[in-house]
């Protein structure tokens, strides 16, 4: 999402106001677009990795960082979605309009995750025996919750979000955990999967931590409306503090992640294990490790220029359009490669792989250079439809285009 913002104020505005500096405002939006665009490129690396048969991390630095670098995607995606919601709300006449938009868009995302995107991942229509609740599912429900929260003062929304991020490792696991967790508990925090009315549902992204991340991002929107120097100072202060807190918590292992450091066993070197925090569900340490650098880099991108910045900003303007396209494109490329390299394994790619992966033959796995080459080709191919759609979206007043 991209939006305009109003000047800073000590009271909650009820009407949109003109920005004090249109050029500075444009630069702030570009910085958000560049970060979102970078997130989409990293996301492509991870999803190509899935179809390449490369494990999600490992004891060698190449495999480990191929997965680790993509950990920035979901936190930035949720956090900046909250920020964009705040900025979008400044253009609306009332918070009711913002809430209605978040509610309808959130439910639309959930519907697409369970239908179109699930097909893009699997290339089959066996919905009854396997339904996948992934990142777009959690993003949609987080928007639905945010639709209710926006009627509170912005500071209250931010406080709720930060409280969820900080406390969920201690509180949520006790409330929603356990082998006998109900379907609702599994959706909220326990994860795994459940069966209901003959429908098998696999939960990858539980809701509670991500609702908090989006709410915190909504509060961050107020910072993006501040004067340039104060905004930059706060971004750096918050970002550096988050990284420092991550290092402290990780080094002491006193709180914030179920994986202790240093590891008590396993082949992974200690220095890699320091970064090997838990994503499912996203722990406090995981979120500090990923969101801190995102906030640090934002001020340095406000004046970004050049071809790379322009390319990334295109993806950042239409992130969901990119997401909808990139999964089936990667899947098609993987099928074509399998037909050439390992034709006997191709049938696995039109079943429930990679969501319920079978044992792949050793010869199927791609090398890392093949993985990154395919990623580069996919990203280049996606640039042109994304550039076209970004122009259409910018020139059109059709509100339905905001849903894609």
Folded structure, characterized:
- The protein is mainly alpha-helical and 404 residues long.
- Helices cover 62% and strands 3% of the residues.
- The chain has 14 helices and three strands.
- It has a three-stranded mixed β-sheet with strand order 1-3-2.
- α13 packs antiparallel against α14.
Q: How would you write the strand order of the largest sheet? A: 1-3-2
Radius of gyration: 21 Å
Largest sheet: 3 strands, mixed
Strand content: under 5%
Give the H and E element order: HHHHEHHHEEHHHHHHH
What proportion of the residues is helical, as a percent range?
Answer: 55-70%
Summarize this structure as a short list of keywords or feature phrases:
404 residues; mainly alpha; 14 helices; 3 strands; disordered N terminus
Task: Describe the structure concisely for a colleague.
The protein has 404 residues and is mainly alpha-helical.
How do the helices and strands line up, and which of them pair or pack?
Layout: H1 22-52, H2 61-68, H3 73-89, H4 95-122, E1 131-133, H5 135-149, H6 154-176, H7 183-190, E2 192-196, E3 199-203, H8 208-223, H9 228-252, H10 270-273, H11 284-297, H12 307-317, H13 319-341, H14 368-395
Parallel strand pairs: 1-3
Antiparallel strand pairs: 2-3
Helix pairs in contact: 1-3, 1-12, 1-13, 1-14, 3-8, 4-5, 4-13, 5-8, 6-7, 6-8, 9-11, 12-14, 13-14
């Amino acid at each position: 999402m991209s939006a305009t913002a109003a000047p800073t104020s000590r009271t909650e505005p009820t009407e949109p106001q003109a920005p004090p500096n249109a050029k500075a405002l444009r630069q702030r939006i570009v910085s958000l677009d560049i970060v979102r665009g970078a997130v989409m490129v990293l996301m492509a690396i991870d999803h190509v990795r899935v179809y390449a048969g490369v494990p999600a991390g490992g004891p060698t630095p190449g495999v480990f960082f191929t997965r680790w670098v993509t950990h920035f995607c979901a936190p930035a995606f949720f956090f900046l979605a909250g920020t964009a919601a705040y900025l979008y709300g400044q253009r609306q006449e009332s918070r009711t309009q913002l809430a209605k938009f978040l509610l309808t868009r959130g439910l639309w995302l959930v519907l697409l995750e369970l239908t179109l995107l699930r097909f893009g991942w699997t290339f089959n229509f066996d919905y009854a025996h396997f339904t996948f609740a992934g990142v777009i599912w959690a993003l949609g429900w987080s928007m639905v919750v945010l639709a209710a929260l926006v009627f509170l003062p912005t500071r209250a929304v931010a406080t709720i979000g930060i409280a969820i991020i900080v406390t969920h490792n201690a509180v949520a696991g006790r409330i929603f955990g356990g082998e006998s967790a109900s379907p609702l508990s599994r959706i909220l925090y326990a994860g795994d999967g459940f069966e209901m009315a003959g429908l098998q549902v696999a939960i990858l992204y539980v809701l509670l931590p991500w609702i908090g991340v989006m709410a915190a991002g909504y509060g961050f929107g107020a910072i993006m409306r501040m004067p340039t120097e104060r905004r930059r100072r706060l971004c750096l202060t918050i970002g550096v503090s988050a990284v420092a807190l991550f290092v402290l918590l990780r080094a002491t292992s006193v709180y914030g992640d179920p994986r202790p450091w240093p590891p008590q066993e396993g082949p992974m070197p200690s220095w890699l294990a320091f970064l090997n925090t838990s994503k499912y569900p996203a722990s406090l340490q995981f979120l500090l490790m990923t969101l801190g650098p995102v906030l640090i880099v934002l001020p340095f991108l406000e004046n970004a220029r050049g071809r790379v910045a322009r390319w990334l900003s295109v993806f950042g303007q239409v992130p969901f359009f990119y997401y909808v396209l990139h999964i089936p494109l990667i899947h098609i490329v993987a099928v074509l490669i399998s037909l050439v390299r390992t034709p006997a394994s191709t049938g696995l790619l039109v079943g429930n792989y990679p969501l319920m992966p079978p044992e792949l033959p050793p010869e199927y796995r791609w090398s890392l250079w093949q993985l990154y080459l395919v990623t580069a080709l996919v990203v280049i191919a996606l640039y042109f439809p994304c550039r076209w759609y970004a122009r259409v979206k910018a020139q059109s007043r059709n509100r339905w285009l905001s849903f894609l």
